[in-house]
C-alpha cells in the first residue's frame, strides 16, 4: 500500500514538473506590431517589396556611389551588423535588412527560400532604393546570398565581403540545437507553439568562440524575433534547402568581383576549411583569418572584424 502511495506521489510530481516545463516553454507567435517598439526604433523603416513589409535601415551619405549592403545569416536580423554599421556609416551609405523568413520582415508570401530567390530579392531591393551597384557583405546564409547575387546579377555587385559564408557542403563539428530541431519534421507542430528561451541561448552561445559575450539582451533579440509570426515555419522550410544550396558550389569559381573573405578560427558550424576553399576558388581574393572568433565575427568582435573591411574598401576603391 505504501508503495502505491509513493508511486502516486511520484507520478504527481512528474506531471507537475512536465506541466511547469510546458508552461515555461509555451511561446505562441507574436505579431510584428508587438515587436516593433523594441526592435524597430529609428532609423528602422518598412518598405513594401515583393508583397512584404521589409524591415530596413538605410544610413550614411546618400551621395555614396557604391553603398554597402549587409546581409545577415539564418535566424539572425539586421541588428547583427550594429557594430559594423556604426563604424562604416560616417563615410559610407550602409543598407541592411531583415531577409524574407527572418526578423521583422517575416515569411515570404510564396514560401520560396531558394538562394536564387534571395539573390533576386537583393536586386529588387537595390532597384527600390535607386542603387545601381553596391558592395555586398554577408555572414553565413547572408554570405551565400551575397555571392549568389554576384553570380546572378554581376552588374549590380562591385565587390564582395564573405564572412564565414555558406556555399559548400557543411562539415560542421557542432550545430546549434535550434537548427537541429528545425530539421525534424515531426516536431513542427510542437515547435510552432513551444520555444524554450534556454534553447535559443544555447544556440547563440554555440556560434560564439567566447560564450561569455552572449548577453541577456542578445538572447532576447534572437528569441523574440524567432517568435515573429511565421518565422518558425520559414526556418523549417529554409533548412530543407541547405543541401540543394551546396549543389551550386560549382558557381563559386565564376565570381569575378574583388572579394574579401573573413573567417573565425573557432567557427564550428562552417569550419575554416570552407574559407580556404573560397579563397582558392575565387581568383584574386583576399583571405583573413580572425583568431579566437566564432561563426559571427561581426557580432562577437565588430571592431576587429570591420577593421579588415575598412582596409579592403580603401585598397579597392
TrEMBL record:
<dbReference type="InterPro" id="IPR000073">
    <property type="entry name" value="AB_hydrolase_1"/>
</dbReference>
<dbReference type="GO" id="GO:0016787">
    <property type="term" value="F:hydrolase activity"/>
</dbReference>
<feature type="domain" description="AB hydrolase-1">
    <location>
        <begin position="67"/>
        <end position="302"/>
    </location>
</feature>
<dbReference type="Pfam" id="PF00561">
    <property type="entry name" value="Abhydrolase_1"/>
</dbReference>
<protein>
    <submittedName>
        <fullName>Alpha/beta hydrolase</fullName>
    </submittedName>
</protein>
<keyword id="KW-0378">Hydrolase</keyword>
<dbReference type="InterPro" id="IPR029058">
    <property type="entry name" value="AB_hydrolase_fold"/>
</dbReference>
